[in-house]
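[09:14] KT: can someone run the structure on this one? pasting the chain below
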Amino acid sequence: MPAANPVAVITGASSGIGAEYADRLAERNYDLVLVARRADRLRKLAATLAAKHGIEVRVIEADLTAEAGLTQVEQLLRSDERISLLVNNAGNGKLSSTTDISDADTASTIALNVVAPTRLARAILPAFLKRDAGAIINIASVMAFHALPITTLYSATKSFVLMLSRGLQGELAGTGVRVQAVLPAATATDFYDDSGVPLSALDPASVMTTKNMVDAALAGFDAGEAVTLPSVHDAALWTAYDVARHALFGATQVGTPAPRYARAM
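[09:31] RB: done, structure tokens below
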């Protein structure tokens, strides 16, 4: 690989948001490591991007819900000193009630949405901190703020991704290492085919293209945003939410029960 180019690692890169990130980062002269389960799609995308942008692309066929696949990517993150960006994009979610979702789908969703981004962040952060440079982009969801009867587990895992990102931002304050949380709303990807709710069931006006989502997310990244909500037009809504969150937490720091919980004498 040309030594001048930084390397970006993108999980869930074979289609959708991950593939769009790959194209956009290749435009920015990143060499790429594309990680996904579907090797045929990865190889096709890698060949297209290498020819289009003149960059080097490696592919790793790995299932991040399996220990072997996760360990393989962890080892890469710990060993390649040229990696300067990790995009934790891989995720899934069967949309179902808590009692109806299968044990296998429950385990898979937690493994991919919670365990994988945590372990991959832990694998890359020591090198980033040693160099005092690098960035992690964690793809969460607006469902981190809201749970529907069929999104209980998915929403919970995406809340984890948001809180993981916010906590890391606090840990890394004052360093040259950045973490961005990206919270897409409905986006036109394969997610819906796999989730059990087809994309056609959604209002077309509420669905964003992957191109627009990733372009907005990267604009937020360039602007230094800690949390990027591509579909939210009124940025003051996030500010108000975050201020209220801080105020609510502050209000909890009292060692006596609130008067409304006092037992009647």
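[09:33] KT: thanks! Helices lie at 16-27, 39-53, 67-79, 103-131, 152-171, 191-195, 210-222, 235-251.
[09:34] RB: yep, looked fine to me
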